[in-house]
Specification:
The chain contains 1 helix and no strands. The protein is an all-alpha fold. Keywords: Membrane, Transmembrane, Transmembrane helix. The chain crosses the membrane at residues 6-25.
């Protein structure tokens, strides 16, 4: 039970971290395009 919970938390934090990373990367790309134009 504890191991399953730990794996779930690890999976959720991984998804959350990936989402933040993608959000930051897309925002950075958009601002870079705005600066280029």
């Amino acid at each position: 039970m504890t191991d399953d919970y730990r794996g779930l938390v690890l999976a959720y934090s991984g998804i959350f971290f990936t989402g933040i990373l993608l959000l930051f990367f897309s925002n950075y790309k958009i601002s870079a395009v705005d600066a280029a134009t």
